[in-house]
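Late entry, written up from scratch paper. The run itself happened at the end of the previous shift, but nothing got recorded in the book at the time, so transcribing now.
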Amino acid sequence: MHAFEFPPEFRTKDIATNGTTIHVRVGGSGPAVVLLHGYGETGDMWMPMAVDLARDHTLVVPDLRGMGLSAKPPSGFDKKTQAGDVAGVLDALRIDSADLVTHDIGNMVGYAFAAQYPKRVTRFILIDAPVPGIGPWEEILKNPLLWHFRFGGPDMERLVAGRERIYLDRFWNEFSATPSRFSEAARTHYAKLYALPGAMHSGFLQFAAFDQDAKENQALLAKGKLAMPVLAIGGEKSFGKTMAEIMRFAASNVCEGVIPDSGHWIMEENPTATIAMVRSFLDTKV
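Output as recorded:
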């Protein structure tokens, strides 16, 4: 497992935008790529991919609102608002358009961004998580593994206070094909970040917004499918080819990818294949 310090050629910025402050790592040069993480991790998950892509791209790696080292505001966790966070970060960095690579809840923020700002997204890669309101969303919600989608509120926060590692281990273990690949160093690192004041509260709010997200996404989709090239990647032991099936409801130009020998945590379980697949798609001409 990678260490979590980005190389010194990456700089960090705290960008005040859209009513909050977003912690961002920026490095490399060339066409821009934005990497959006999901729940149970932070932008740190992308470090090996960011280093690889920075050879010929400018990388922008934020922590989502309320997560990691970004501020923990009281509201704004619907994905349409968080798409505005991404737009504000790119504006602050004077980046007009970028390729978008997303995982988990990052997929949901990424879809809201691509649907609202289609001219700002050159290519869109989504990895191993559904998008609220898109395709078989209601069926996916019935999966008992996804009980955490409805887990939240003050009593749930009291249950996990001081036990963040236990709660997060459940995600890392149950959604891995090989839990040992989500290393002890990674678990310690992320558990510490999720134990920061307001972090678990913010995480619960990310999920609590899903019903609103579903309505807003259906309204966005009613205006038309995404037109930019989309690569929908699933972990072989997780969403697999279903990712592409989901995204064909929302985009007109979808390629399918499956990361072998991996569950949900693609950057921990098979980073080599993940980086190679992403780079290959980004290197194709639009």
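The radius of gyration is 17 Å.
(Scratch paper discarded after transcription.)
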